[in-house]
Amino acid sequence: MIPHTFDEWKNCIVNDCKTELTEAFTARRLKVYEDRNNPETRAFVKLYGQQHLENVIRWLKSGLE
After folding, report:
1. How confident is the model at residue 64, as a pLDDT?
2. How far apart, in Å, are the Cα atoms of 14 and each of 36, 43, 46?
3. CB count in 10 Å sphere of residue 13
4. How many CA atoms lie within 13 A of 41 on its CB side?
């Protein structure tokens, strides 16, 4: 399932993936996802689409606030 809201996404990351949304995790993921030429980012877009990438970047940034 592709999450469509911040709460769904956070549940996937924290509960399903057992990953803490720390500042370090968020910074690492943003570094990858904001680099459109990164192979991991390109694979993410191919699998989940550009809109989901933009959502995840927004959600990661909101987690820092």
Report:
1. 60
2. 25, 22, 24
3. 20
4. 17
What is the tens place of the pLDDT at every residue in 3-28? 999 999 999 999 999 999 999 999 99
The pLDDT score that the predictor gives to residue 1 is 81
Residue with tokens 């933009």: 54
The pTM of the full predicted model, rounded to 2 decimals, is 0.89
Structure tokens at 61: 């940034």
Given a contact cutoff of 8 angstroms between Cβ atoms, the answer to whether 55 and 29 are in contact is no
List the one residue out of 9, 39, 43, 42 whose CA is nearest residue 26: 9
- 2/56 Cα distance (integer angstroms): 11
